[in-house]
Amino acid sequence: MAITLSDETRSELIAALKSYFLEERGEEIGDLHATLFLDFIVEEIGPSIFNQAVKEAQARLQNVVADLDVNLFEPEFQYSAAKARRR
Question: Is residue 79 part of a domain?
């Protein structure tokens, strides 16, 4: 599954990369350099980040599902139990 970014997100990330290079490295890079670097990050690093996020989401969902009986438990036969206590 290829990671795709919206045009707006790509534009924001390109601007962020250009800003990073200028502020942190003192280098001014153009749109092409920033775009190529972003493409490398998305293709090479993105899948690792995506896979880790999926693992974390899966673990969290498994915990939620495992606790469903605790969190959503409703006592049964309350009418009969209350009636028996009144006697």
Answer: yes
